[in-house]
Design goal:
Layout lengths: L1 E5 L8 H14 L4 E5 L5 H5 L27 E2 L5 E4 L8 H4 L9 H9 L5 E5 L6 H9 L2 E7 L2 H21 L4 E7 L6 H14 L32 H24 L1
Helix pairs in contact: 1-8, 4-5
Length: about 260
């Protein structure tokens, strides 16, 4: 089982779209995938048609002292091989519990290690803030994927996310592979092209040599929760995400060779 965290400390960079697109493509290729929504805004959960009221059972239950089995919380999607774990708005209050309930920073990691062995990949869609939920994701992850908008301000957020990854890697004392995925790229603008070039120059092999383009057909992310024959599989962005997944998988292979 491989655990991938899709995270950035800046919002609006395409984290949820990236999580859905990559998870759906992995599942389409035959991998067993669990997609976990860690964002209290629950955009990923809404994309699967789960209403916020009444709150569904999901991620928040993993942080209870009487934690139910993971299998009782997971839901099957319409896409074969793809399951998901919903978020609840109550996750926003989780930080307050950390002072009186020790060990919350490793709650997700413990649950996945004990009970997620039936999956080939677990993808964690993270909130856009550095807090308990993102710490849980980075503590559990083998691979951090950072979607990053191709605009100058995004470079600042990217630098902060990379520093956070280094801090988590030191504290947990095992490697955390990092891949930077340029998103929302508009090749018609000079600032977009210049930012992409700067990002790739600053981060080298960590940054994808291509980018996910702006695509109006991706505005409705619930399209990504449907089987391939009813999804917008012909769009430019989804085609780019397939290429990005190939690059991510290749990065993992290279890291394994280097570690051997």
């Amino acid at each position: 089982m491989r655990i991938w965290a899709i995270a950035n400390q800046k919002g609006g960079v395409g984290k949820t779209t990236t999580s859905l697109a990559i998870a759906a493509e992995l599942a389409t290729r035959g991998s067993r995938v669990l997609l976990i929504d860690l964002d209290p805004h629950a955009s990923l959960t809404c994309a699967f048609g789960v209403p916020a009221d009444p709150p569904p059972r999901g991620v928040l239950d993993l942080f209870d002292e009487s934690r139910p089995p993971l299998a009782t919380l997971v839901r099957a999607s319409e896409i074969q091989n793809l399951s998901y774990l919903p978020a609840q708005t109550g996750l926003a209050m989780l930080e307050r519990r950390s002072a009186s309930q020790p060990g919350l920073g490793l709650a997700l990691s413990g649950a996945l290690m004990r009970e997620a062995g039936d999956y080939d990949y677990v993808l964690l869609d993270c909130p856009p803030t550095l807090g308990l939920l993102m710490v849980n994701a980075l503590a559990a992850a083998d691979h951090l994927i950072i979607p990053t908008q191709t605009e100058p301000l995004a470079l600042h957020g990217l630098a902060g996310m990379c520093r956070t990854a280094e801090m988590i890697e030191r504290s947990r004392r095992r490697p955390l592979l990092v891949s930077i995925l340029p998103t929302l790229f508009d090749r018609r603008t000079r600032v977009g092209s210049e930012t992409l070039a700067q990002m790739q120059a600053l981060h080298g092999a960590r940054a994808w040599s291509e980018a996910i383009p702006n695509d109006t057909r991706m505005c409705s992310i619930d399209e990504l929760t449907r089987p391939m024959n009813s999804r917008l599989h012909g769009g430019r962005a989804l085609s780019a995400y397939r290429n990005a997944l190939d690059w991510i998988l290749h990065s993992e292979q290279l890291a394994q060779v280097q570690a051997a």
